[in-house]
Automatic annotation (TrEMBL):
UniProt domain HTH marR-type: residue ranges: 9-149
Cited PROSITE patterns: HTH_MARR_2 (PS50995)
Database matches in Gene3D superfamilies: Winged helix-like DNA-binding domain superfamily/Winged helix DNA-binding domain (1.10.10.10)
Protein name per its UniProtKB record: Winged helix-turn-helix transcriptional regulator
Amino acid sequence: MSPTAAQATIDIDGVMAQIRRSMAKREMGRLALRDLELPIDVADLDILAALEGCSAHSGEATVGFIAERLNVDPSRASRIVADAVDKGIVRRAASQSDSRRIVLELTEAGRAHALAIRRYKWRVFADALGHWPEDDLVTFARLFQRFSNWMAEAKENAGAR
């Protein structure tokens, strides 16, 4: 690696550390909740995102799905779901494929909160990136996607050895 490439790699690592800290502090979510004055907690953002993502893929979400998605044990996921149900952002319903099974769905309020948060994030990104030349933005998006796949590729390559 050339000295210039090595410095670029060091710079990328520094930026990634800043991004990790920001994500760990949940800064974007906290700003959205504050600015939108939503009656939910930062912890509720995970269940909103999980259920919204599940419904986008036509899947049925269960407490087990929430546990897996949030990387928590099932009893913790059950408490998270119960709290979200109490807040009126999630409801339990019978599965369409097996009425003995209980699935989770966003309520109208949950969908409205998720949509408001998504729009808030888009506005923040648009404000931050709106002045970039289109070619730069398209190139950055392509390269960022390529970069984000590096860990999966590293795992695959390590397994092939």
